[in-house]
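Example (one chain per record):
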Amino acid sequence: MVDGIRYDTAHATLIIGAGEYFGNGSYGLCRLYRTDDGKFFHLLMVWTLAGTAVDLTAITANHDLGVLQIAQVLLPDRDVVGFLRDWYCAGLLPIDDDFVKEWAESALPADECQEVMVALGNRYSPRADVPPATDA
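Predicted structure:
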């Protein structure tokens, strides 16, 4: 529970997750989730020989690190194109085109960066595989 709202990892969609073993029995896990109603939350867990620490943070407009910034930190460069195309350009993440353009330009080779820019440009274009709606 965060601010009286229940965030359930079993019923939310995992956007991205990363874990790391630090040695000496210490392990950290960071995950970013999206709820069915479009809310985002961030889960950070650290296991050590001394015990487990859990931090669950709802991501709001006032949060220092937003959804895209957390994704940028967690996502390996090899996965950026697919992530931006399938999540961002599909309208499933908060919109910040300037941030995404800078991220793509700094992390990707020219061909992959161009692929992201094309996907951004086509974001609101009708899809060829979906027939247009007709009036009944």
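Caption: The chain has a mean pLDDT of 83.
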